[in-house]
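Annex B. Sample input.
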Amino acid sequence: MLGPVLLAASRSAAIRRLVSAAPVTRPMVDRFIAGERLTESLGSVRSLTARGLDVTLDHLGEDVTDRVEALRSRDAYLALTEALAAEGLAGRAEMSVKLSAFGQALPGGHDLALANVTPVVEAAAAAGTTVTLDMEDHTTVDSTLAILGDLRTRFPQTGAVVQSYLFRTEDDCRALAGEGSRVRLVKGAYNEPASVAYQDKREVDRSYVRCLKILMAGEGYPMIGSHDPRMVAIAQDLAHRLGRKLDEYEFQMLYGIRVAEQERLVAEGHRMRVYVPYGTDWYGYFMRRLAERPANLTFFLRSLVGRR
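Annex B, continued. Sample output.
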């Protein structure tokens, strides 16, 4: 299985240097990344919203190694918030943050991440937008959900992400499905051990459906993060059977993936939000996208061999 190998490679500095130096990498990265600079990402936001799509922006960066880097991540999001407000885009674009970029993995990381992300959530609320806390590997889940609970006491619109490949996620969905919550359900994109996560794709899919049923039957706002046509269809059926209106849930897909499907859902009246990553620290995100879809990896490898 190449997926786990690629996920392990996403944390390798040596492989990062190799991939970054390959001439074919840039065109592939451009498919999934909206640009390295804030101005480039705003251009993508304007283009997407003009086509009826909503957006969530992710300033790429994770696993920071010192407090200075964590402060840079905070400042990048504060600049993004200011830009969204100035461009009049805050009503259509929210932000996704990885708490590891705010220092979660450093000594005292829980308190540090909370201290760094709080001003971003405050600024987002003042600008008329909001923040969703991305979920990372299983060791961070408890800390991330605790930070979410703290933030939601003042900013109840703060969102969370849960991953269906983790055994615990059905229980987390039950806890998060209350009134006012915003929960993005994804399958998961980290290399997790069999002690905490389903290893078989069919089991991950079954768990996704069980979690989706919990969220759709709850009182919160489900965000269906999937490119899988079956999951999209199941979500539509559940929404219909449970009497959810079109503005009481949304679909989310990644920038550059299944673009025609994104536009189809918008044409049917659904709210469709595109996850738009930008920034110079693209490597880990890029490798996870290759791991998720064999077609992406095949295209990349063929291009690499062809260039050589």
